[in-house]
Design brief:
Oligomer: single chain
Number of helices: 9
Strand order of the largest sheet: 1-2-3-5-4
Radius of gyration: 45 Å
Number of strands: 5
């Protein structure tokens, strides 16, 4: 039995309508041919018509033309050609017995085209038309009787059959092509949506990693060092121990506030109810006081502005504040510096942050470890990631023994100033 193709237009309305119409048309015309048979051949004509309908019904159950795709190969010798050949032979018998059997040629042509396909089907239709014309001219047309009806009738019927079937199949084929295009676009849109979600998840993870590094990790590191220093001072300098514990508690409160801000995805605590310049000065004061710092030597931090200060978009202010926190933490922990300077420069289309120190300097031959490599060194990659997301530039210049200068330039597009 022929199975339906997965790509078939098996249940298209056009195909179902054609097949149902073909069933009814063939049945009605066969009955008419049997009824209008000449006297004396009524029963043989009825038997031929019944046999034709029986073979048709049996073949319809096996071939399942309504489940065929117009794109799948058709016209196999079994069961397609065998079924059509059996119907054609029985039609010839009915035509020989009853002149009205000529009308059965039209639904037979439709069936031949649909079952055998455009190549073998057209050949079968042409053969059927020739037989119908020959029958009309040789057995039906009398002397002096016009013969044009016996010629034009079958030929026009063949032309209409070919046009109807091939036209419907072309329409169905185009509909299938459009449906495949729609399915491909739907799959592509689904893949793009999945990729976009994955990218958003990756970006959010990177953002959270940066926020945790710039806030919680530094606060916890400062608390650990302050408590270690307080532990060393217990028993020998109680006042210093209490002062260090107080600084640790203050750092813990700030870290807790930052943690809540990160969870709620709000602006940093340092930007709450203040300007960016005020937030930078607060970070500088905490670093100088040793609250945010992790180094062992005093660090003087100054904050300056160049140009007319103005409110910036929140993402830019958050990025500049986080980068300053991370840069000052690196200076305090690694540079061995005694002084650091933070300069914020406002320009018409951009804002520039410069963090300079007088520490041991940066060795250009040493590449900072990659983020997530298992060791320290997430700070610089995290800063680069922030700057890259905002379309800015980051440069890090230093020489051994001559200090280090970190410069970040972020674009401020027209209309983004808040």
């Amino acid at each position: 039995m022929t199975r339906p193709s997965s790509s078939a237009a098996t249940s298209s309305p056009a195909t179902r309508g054609l097949v149902v119409g073909l069933d009814l048309l063939l049945a009605v015309l066969v009955v008419v041919a049997a009824v209008q048979a000449p006297p004396g051949v009524g029963w043989p004509a009825a038997l031929a018509g019944g046999a034709l309908l029986a073979v048709y019904v049996a073949g319809r159950a096996v071939v399942r033309v309504h489940e065929r795709s117009v794109d799948t190969p058709r016209g196999a010798w079994w069961p397609d050609v065998a079924w059509v050949a059996g119907l054609t032979v029985l039609w010839l018998v009915l035509l020989w017995l009853s002149p009205a059997g000529l009308w059965v040629a039209f639904p037979l042509m439709l069936l031949q085209l649909h079952v055998l396909g455009p190549r073998r089907g057209v050949a079968a239709v042409a053969l059927t038309a020739v037989v119908a014309v020959a029958d009309g001219l040789l057995t039906r047309s009398g002397p002096g009787e016009p013969w044009t009806g016996y010629v034009l009738g079958p030929l026009l019927g063949a032309a209409v059959a070919v046009g109807v079937v091939l036209g419907i199949e072309a329409f169905v084929r185009e509909a299938q092509s459009r449906q495949r295009t729609v399915d491909e676009l739907t799959r592509a849109r689904r893949h793009l949506a999945v990729a976009e979600r994955e990218r958003a998840v990756t970006d959010e993870r990177a953002r959270l990693a940066r926020d945790i590094h710039d806030t919680l990790a530094q606060s916890l590191s400062a608390i650990e060092l302050l408590l270690r220093a307080a532990e060393d001072a217990v028993g020998s300098d109680e006042d210093r121990a209490r002062a260090l514990v107080g600084q640790a508690r203050s750092a813990a409160r700030d870290g807790l506030a930052e943690a809540r801000r990160v969870v709620q995805d709000l602006t940093p605590a340092d930007l709450d109810r203040t300007t960016l310049l005020g937030a930078l000065r607060r970070v500088a004061d905490r670093t100088a006081a040793g609250i945010d710092g992790t180094g062992s030597r005093p660090l003087a931090v100054t904050v300056h502005t160049v140009g007319t200060s103005r409110p910036l978009p929140v993402p830019l202010e958050i990025a500049l504040l986080r980068i300053t926190q991370s840069a000052l933490a690196n200076v305090d922990e690694h540079a061995g510096a005694s002084r650091a300077e933070v300069t914020l420069t406002y320009e018409p289309g951009s804002v520039t942050l410069r963090v300079a120190d007088d520490g041991v300097g940066l060795d250009p031959a040493v590449t900072p470890p990659a983020a997530g490599s298992g060791g320290r060194g997430f700070g610089i990659p995290a800063m680069r990631s922030r700057v890259r997301e905002l379309g800015g530039e980051l440069t890090l210049v230093g020489q051994p023994g001559a200090g280090t200068v970190l410069t970040v330039t972020l674009p401020v597009r027209p209309g983004e100033d808040t």
